[in-house]
Amino acid sequence: MSRWITAPLCLLAGMLAFSAQAEPTQAIYNDWQVSCDNLNHCVARNSQDGQELVMKITREAGPEGKSTVSIDYQRNSDEQSAEAPIASRLQMNGKTLSFNHREWDVSKKHLSTGNRLVVNDFIAAIREGSSIQLAGKADTAQPVRPVISLKGLKAALLAIDAQQGRVGTKTAWANRGTKPVNTVPPIPATPVLPRFSEPHALSETEISAITQNAATTIENNDCSLDPSEREVHIFALSNEKALMTVNCDMGAYNLYALGFLVSRQSPYKMDDLALSMPFKLGEDDQSPELINADFDPKTGLLTTYDKGRGVGDCGVSSRWIFDGKTFRLAAFTSEPSCDGYSSGGDWPVLWVTQAP
Q1: Are strands 294-296 and 349-351 parallel, antiparallel or unpaired?
Q2: In whole angstroms, what is the distance from residue 285 CA to residue 273 CA?
Q3: For 244, phi and psi rounded to 5 degrees?
């Protein structure tokens, strides 16, 4: 499964063509991951296997886009430790970093700020660094001190500047220039979802006819599950169409299904369900698969949840709504880094919409 978009850095500075609809991007630059949604809201964080210190940087689009910086220490076994808060123990290249408590929200294992000037100053201070380490009494259970690698941070900041049209402006983080603030493009328009109208419920006669008519077609599809083990679900989409899903393959933590759009009247024509993405993620142009799929007949929302591994710290998820003819993307999240940070499906957002 393709997880992220990569682009040569020499092209980033040229990404200044904007339209009413932004193209989401997701890329990894050495030890940093950048995710920007279709509103050009961007999130960057360090991504390292076994990490315990996590820095997250966010920025909204637009001339005065709000920004935040946060650092979290994720070591659970340190809860009862008498160690000082991390804000007094963080060092960059051997020098202790300073965090003014009037400008930063500080607790034992967390610090953050949403003050735009403070964020800008902090990023400028660390942009050329190599790493941020947690100093203090060494823990014998930790062979290596917790560290935030800054390798790739500058490239990540440049990617955000390019995505939001800030390169060469006074608001840029990595390539600041003299262009005025008002040359930064505004936030792109949010796509509006179609309104779903709940149709008449399927009758027992319809369900029986659709199931019998589809049996032969389903049998010929490439399903690893034995026919006796395949669960078939049928949902009304409109007064003319129904959605049929057939469980076809079972992995350790993912269930794969086939989807079909079926007419509710004889001869019950059945077409393969094709979910069309409004943007390209990676090199894969294929339609998303129905993995751990579910459908809500009240809202018309079809959801998928593809876990990259059992703990659920990486993967992709999506939500789709039926517009009367086909399914349109309502939401999409993607976490390419299986590093233990994002759990329970709380993954970076790449596509957002609004209700009609």
Answers
A1: unpaired
A2: 15
A3: -120, 130
Q: What is the pLDDT of residues 76-118, one digit of tens each?
A: 654 455 578 899 999 998 899 999 999 999 999 999 999 999 9
DSSP annotation of 263 reads E
Edge-to-edge strands of the sheet including 95-96?
95-96, 90-92, 131-134, 147-149
Distance of CA 52 to the CA centre of its chain: 21
- Position 137 scores a pLDDT of 63
CB 330 within 8 A of CB 301: yes
Contact criterion met (CB below 8 Å) for 307 and 294: no
The whole-number average pLDDT for the span 279-308 is: 88
CA gap 5, 226 in Å, rounded: 37
Give which of 26, 139, 25, 123 is closest to 71, Cα–Cα. Answer: 123
Query: To the nearest 10°, the Cα dihedral for 177, 180, 182, 187?
Result: 10
165 and 62 Cβ atoms separated by less than 8 Å: no
Cα 71 from Cα 54, distance rounded (Å): 6
| Residue 221: per-residue pLDDT | 60
Chain-centroid distance of CA 210 in Å reads: 36
